Amino acid sequence: MAQLFTEAENRLLTQTGPGTPMGELMRRYWIPAFLSERLPMENSEPFEITLLGESLVAFRGRNGQVGLMDSKCPHRRASLVLARVEDDCALRCIYHGWKVDAQGQVLETPPEPPNSRFAQSIRHRAYPTREAGGIIWTYMGPEEERPEFPMWPFNGLPEGHVWANHFYQPSNWLQGLEGDLDAAHGGYLHYSKEEWDRQRNSNSRLGKFLFDPRPQTAVEPAPWGLQTAFRYHLEEENEAVFWIHPLISPFYTMFSHAEDGAQGGLFHAWVPSTDDSHYVYSVVWQRESPLTEDRRQAIDATQGYTAVDKANGYLSVNWDGKGYRQDRESMTEGLSFSGFEGVHLQDLAIQHSMGPVVDRSKENLCAEDFLIIQARRFFLETLEKLARGEELPALQPGMDYSRIEHRWVFAPSSTSLAEVLTRKDWDSSTEENTRDVSTVKAAWSALGVDGAV
Fold it and tell me: For the chain, which terminus, N or C, has the lower number of CB atoms within 10 Å?
């Protein structure tokens, strides 16, 4: 088979540090820096975080403002993680008392003579921040290129309507994002007998994907990046759920959901830390009503959002230093296809197993990888636009992030993906979605998985 992606192209897509093409592209966008919960309003301590290959210190001033800057003092490069937090959102280095504010201005150099103007000649590397949706966001690119802050659909909602989470994953960012575009893995990697029974017995057809081991996909260009569509057969083969699923530059996706009439969605981001690691963000939101504790627990039972070790850099609690704990007994008993519990852990484990950075030149891609191929080509083409100085996806003047199309459609399985993408007036509200469907599809029988028949 002809090589689809070269080692050079792979490096272009996976390297995101300062001065790299993909790193410079990502720096043109507002990106998640960390969860707001990592800097509570009271008694928060500075902490170090690496974003796009840069070691930064994050802190919250007593005025509530959040600062994000180079983690080393501009004087003698002592760690500012050890610094004192000042009232005016500034850090004072404990080595010589230099004071630097959140804009990177050196305000005081106490050991210098009283009339010294030395401080005014120094500018410390610092980045602007915004807080929205339970996340601290930052912009790390050229100031003259800074875009408007994106108004995601969850930004203005009350606190109880939004639930933000993230994991730290020891592998390259692109492995995570590509997993979200891979429709076919869901029925295998994410199979468990418990989840099978939950989907089969649920009146809602929104999140059902286990009954179709061979889903179809489609893609079309969009102002924000790519618009993709997944089609999954339901229990009855003549019915299907279609997921209209945007890929938003540089590393975002969104799904829609509607439970008991509460319209909302699921936002994902894969934010590079180093070239060998990234943060996986998930934000669940509901517009009309708060997310109840029962609803959060139901989501968590499938996703496993809370299975993180917050004292250990937000790694999965199943991380043992080398990999993720796998339950081989559950595989033998037919309770789990993968031996990992929860969608997030399943994704983390398989993506980590590929190595820190996949060598995509050694892959053997097939028909089911259509969206993966299109996404890589999209990123390569976007890098060319950046090099030519052209307008980048999702950064057009007046771009309204809150109106990016993400929806579910229930339709006969014979409906073409092209028609679903074209009919933008179709969504889950156009059809009744509580019909009880009980006939289970038998395509799983060849896999020998208990319960999937």
Answer: N
**Secondary structure of the chain: what % helix, strand, coil (to 5)?**
30, 30, 45
159-447 homologous superfamily: Naphthalene 1,2-dioxygenase Alpha Subunit; Chain A, domain 1 (3.90.380.10)
Q: What is the pLDDT at residue 444?
A: 35
260 Cβ contact list (under 8 Å, min separation 6): none
Q: Are 219 and 363 in contact (CB under 8 A)?
A: no
**What are the residue ranges in the chain where pLDDT is below 50?**
1-2, 260-261, 431-453
Residue 132 to residues 47, 67, 88, 258, 263, Cα–Cα distance (Å): 20, 15, 21, 22, 19
Class of domain 37-145: mainly beta
Element housing 300 (H / E): helix 293-303
Return the pLDDT at 451. Answer: 37
Q: Are 225 and 247 in contact (CB under 8 A)?
A: yes
Which of 91, 19, 27 shows the shortest CA–CA distance to 57? Answer: 91
DSSP 245: E
Amino acid at 359: D
pLDDT at 43: 65
Kindly report the number of other CB atoms within 10 A of residue 69's CB atom: 23
Distance CA 414, CA 361 (A): 36
Helix (H) or strand (E) holding 348: helix 343-353
Burial pattern 340-376, b for ≥16 Cβ within 10 A else e, equals bbbbbbbbbbbbbeeeebbebeeeeeeeebbbbebbb
**Could you tell me the pTM of the whole model?**
0.90
pLDDT at 13: 97
CA distance linking residue 137 with residue 178, whole number of Å: 23
Q: Which of 438, 444, 412, 440 is nearest to 426 (CA)?
A: 412
- Domain limits, the chain: 37-145, 159-447
